[in-house]
Amino acid sequence: MSTQPKLVVITGASSGIGEALALEYAQQGFAVYACGRNQAKLDALSQKSANIIPCIFDLNDKNALRSALPKDLAIDHLILNAGTCEYIDNPKQFDGELFERVIQTNLIAVGYCLETWLKQMKFGGQVGLMSSSAAYVPLTRAEAYGASKAGITYLAKTLSVDLEPQEIGISVIHPGFVKTPLTDKNDFDMPGIIEADDAAKAIFKGMSKSTFDIHFPKGFTWTLKVLSLLPFSLWRPLAKRMIKT
Predict the structure, then answer these.
(1) Which among 31, 109, 122, 223 is placed 20 to 30 Å from 190, CA to CA?
(2) Cis peptide before 175 (omega within 30 of 0)
């Protein structure tokens, strides 16, 4: 008697960590709904494994999101990975539209996804929310990005309590620097940077064990965790040294 494979939905699967996650989950035998906006990239991704089903839509389009997946899907793992990063180089000329764009994609769209797909989660399922190690400590120029990811971390903590009676687990993912098309645009040193494939393996392992805080690489993220315990009066001089000149 054959059994249905487990099913995962991954957003932001066109490139970077999302693409690597789709391939990792497919290799582990999951049916993978790989979501994103770039049809050519997702079609190419689906050619690498028969387990990958491309789903092309914009997460910020609520109507498209609501109709993107079959209503009868029973989801084992849901990874809300899609995101963007833009820096505020001149805080005195604060760019409110940039701030809105980043918050919309990184935080508000996650709410749309939860509204649509939480009701399709299986009992015992696991939801992964993509935060960042930037949520641990304030990083210069990252007013928009860091605020959005801190919001994700807070959201994950509250959901982990509120969804416990429904037996739905929450993982919050705090990567350090991962080599992706997004980080390729950075103009600063990225200590401890790892490949997207390694990030995907760490996330799959953590999700499979229902780990709440999935963070990597450990040396980098533990350093930030320790620094986050310092009073801000001590952390502030360190942050000032990172200001781009």
Answers:
(1) 109
(2) no
Cα separation, 16 vs 183, in Å, equals 9
Which tens digits make up the pLDDT trace of 167-196? 999 999 999 878 877 676 766 676 668 899
SS3 87: coil
Specify the pLDDT at position 216.
94
What share of residues in the chain are helix, strand, coil (percent, to 5)? 45, 20, 35
Cβ atoms within 10 Å of 140's Cβ, excluding its own: 16
pLDDT for 18-70, tens place per residue?
Answer: 999 999 999 999 999 999 999 999 999 999 999 999 999 999 999 999 999 99
Domain 7-241, CATH among 3.30.420.60, 3.40.50.720, 3.30.420.10, 3.30.1120.10: 3.40.50.720
How far is it, in rounded angstroms, from Cα 182 to Cα 202?
Answer: 19
